[in-house]
């Protein structure tokens, strides 16, 4: 097996490993353990039925050494701390990969009712389980970020949010959180993530607050797929996304704006790659990630959906990576965020 095919395989089939740092449920399309593959951060499903086993930091396939070294990310020191009012730091923000701090600043979403919910999302499941709190105050995030940088060498922060009923769709609370963190750790790069705000001037407010990069996540550029998988978000027209991306590129700069594109929702692979190329031409990084069914989501509990085939994921990823290289846009050139981390995607293994 070559490195790319193995990376694709484990992204879909998972691995058997004791991973102290894991992400269970939440706002995104991942439910993973965090490891280092050859020293590079990766978020890989932990599955007891996987043919891949990590033993002595080596990745074995049915007992045969694949040649890849995998090391579980260790539990960070800041997880052992709590705020003065008794809230665990781990409930406020989590370690992603080896050096990324991430949190959902508002853990509820106006689109979480079953008729509107994104079918791959379980944003409120972690809240119901008690593993997080509903709203993270700016001062709490600043406190946790300072500790994570000081104790665990965190190098970037990702702030996302459930969608609010306000015209800003939650962006203004993100801005307050960014300002608070930057006041304490001004050197820490921050990516914010939100839906296209109703007033695009809000994007400039986020930049002025100190945000270094932004993710405006559409997940699919196919309207039929959007209506089926994201009925609530699909009410926001793609033209609104395009206007927001264009303004975000103007405000944040080329390759400091990104969007998720999920492989496996039923979108034609050629059209997905073509759409990704259009985004790249705009200066937007298409963060191509395999759809993986999460426990607690409608995709599993109602639809019985499955992940994409390995050959489809590999083909799409390789072609999008080629377009990114053509445009001189690499995830590692982003200041902060999902593309800068790269752990949930295979793009970095394909040269993107």
TrEMBL record:
Residues 94-323 form the Radical SAM core domain. Its cofactor is [4Fe-4S] cluster. GO terms for molecular function: 4 iron, 4 sulfur cluster binding; 7,8-didemethyl-8-hydroxy-5-deazariboflavin synthase activity; metal ion binding. The keyword Cell division does not apply. It holds the Pfam family Radical_SAM. Keywords: 4Fe-4S, Iron, Iron-sulfur, Metal-binding, S-adenosyl-L-methionine. PANTHER family: FO SYNTHASE (COFH) (PTHR43076), LIPOYL SYNTHASE 2 (PTHR43076:SF1). This is MSMEG_0568 family radical SAM protein. It comes from Nocardia colli.
């Amino acid at each position: 097996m070559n490195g790319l095919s193995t990376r694709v395989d484990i992204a879909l089939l998972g691995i058997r490993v004791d991973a102290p740092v894991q992400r269970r449920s939440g706002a995104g399309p991942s439910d993973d353990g965090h490891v280092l593959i050859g020293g590079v951060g990766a978020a890989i499903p932990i599955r007891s039925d996987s043919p891949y086993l990590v033993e002595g930091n080596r990745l074995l396939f049915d007992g045969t050494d694949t040649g890849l070294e995998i090391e579980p990310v260790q539990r960070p020191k800041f997880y052992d701390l709590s705020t003065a009012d008794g809230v665990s730091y781990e409930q406020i923000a989590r370690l992603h990969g080896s050096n990324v701090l991430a949190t959902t600043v508002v853990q509820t979403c106006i689109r979480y009712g079953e008729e509107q919910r994104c079918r791959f999302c379980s944003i409120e499941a972690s809240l119901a389980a008690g593993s997080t709190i509903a709203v993270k105050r700016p001062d709490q995030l600043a406190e946790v970020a300072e500790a994570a940088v000081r104790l665990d060498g965190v190098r970037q922060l990702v702030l996302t949010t459930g969608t609010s009923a306000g015209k800003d769709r939650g962006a203004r609370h993100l801005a307050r959180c960014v300002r608070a963190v930057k006041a304490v750790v001004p050197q820490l790069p921050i990516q914010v993530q939100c839906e296209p705000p109703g007033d695009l001037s809000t994007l400039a407010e986020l930049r002025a607050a100190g945000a270094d990069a932004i993710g405006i996540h559409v997940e699919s550029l196919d309207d039929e797929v959007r209506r089926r998988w994201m009925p609530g978000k699909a009410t926001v027209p793609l033209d609104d996304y395009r206007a927001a991306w264009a303004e975000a590129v103007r405000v944040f700069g080329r390759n400091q704006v990104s969007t998720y594109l999920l492989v496996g929702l039923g979108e034609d692979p050629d059209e997905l790659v073509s759409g990704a190329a259009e985004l790249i031409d705009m200066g937007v990084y298409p963060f191509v990630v395999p759809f993986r069914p999460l426990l607690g989501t409608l995709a599993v509990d109602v639809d019985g959906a499955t992940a994409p085939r390995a050959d489809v994921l590999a083909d799409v990823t390789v072609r999008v990576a080629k377009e990114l290289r053509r445009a001189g846009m690499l995830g590692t050139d982003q200041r902060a965020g999902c593309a800068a981390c790269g752990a949930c995607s295979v793009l970095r293994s394909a040269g993107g």
